[in-house]
Amino acid sequence: MRLNTIKPAAGSRPKGKRVGRGIGCTDGKTCGRGHKGQHARAGGYHKVGFEGGQMPLQRRLPKSGFRSAMSRYVAEVRLHELAKAAEGDVVDVLALAQAGVIPHHIQRVRVIASGELNRAIKVRGLELTKGARAAIEAAGGSIEA
User: Fold this and answer.
1) Which residues contact 115 (CB under 8 A, 6 or more apart)?
2) DSSP state of 86
3) How many domains does the structure of the chain reveal?
4) Domain contains 107
5) Are 33 and 40 in contact (CB under 8 A)?
6) CA angle, corner 17, sides to 15 and 23, nearest 5?
7) What are the tens digits of pLDDT across the range 16-26?
8) Which domain, by its residues, includes 35?
């Protein structure tokens, strides 16, 4: 093997477009750049979304929506996922994180009534919906604030 014989694997890099090869080719003469203007020049550059001084689309449209910064630290957990974290029958934020049910940066957990809970567990420091609270107590579990 020599340095002058090394090539990329077949198909890994498409061959570059050969422009300026005459009128028989699609990209002859102006090479697909059109006539004159900023795009036609070498080094002609503008920002993404720039429309030649016209008010850009992203500024013409109204702002909408809101994304809470707090949502990064709050997670929703289903009832059947609590059973995965109940090693010592006590489920809290730390136990859920160690079991891989929630990411480690989560600070608040809300338990929703989805799925089934088959055994008694003790829930500590989690927010519960009315349905989740009823399901935990029906399974013989307890809830600590």
Assistant:
1) 78, 79, 80, 81
2) -
3) 2
4) yes
5) yes
6) 140
7) 899 999 999 88
8) 18-63
